[in-house]
Amino acid sequence: MIANADRVRHWADENEEEIVFADGLDDAVIGLTRDMKTGAWRVVYDTHRVVQVLVNDKGMDHDDAVEHLEHNIVCAYVGEGTPIWSFLPIIEEDEG
Model's pTM, two decimal places? Predict the structure, then answer.
């Protein structure tokens, strides 16, 4: 199976588009979107997967990974192509 990050890179190469990736977070890529205001293509990341990467690959515990994501990754602006950080809230179901 081709990883999502590889698909995005392949598409960008074929279409001669410059795409900004977050270093070391390829496993968290879920897609690509276009900013309709600027026309820039932006990589979309799943924040839950980012936390998993930070825990598994960088050796952080869960709380440190979440803090690192919130303070150092999501807040970083790297120009028009800054990645998008997708968050799907977790809703715990009643056991009752």
Answer: 0.88
Gap between the Cα atoms of 28 and 54, Å rounded? 10
DSSP state, 84? E
pLDDT digits (tens, 9 = 90+) for 33-68: 999 999 999 999 999 999 999 999 999 999 999 999
> Using CA atoms, how far apart are residues 96 and 93, in angstroms rounded to an integer?
9
Query: Tokens 């001669």 sit at which residue?
Result: 16
Q: What is the DSSP letter of 57?
A: H
Question: What CA–CA distance (Å, rounded) separates 29 from 22?
Answer: 9
* Cα distance between residue 10 and residue 24, in whole Å: 18
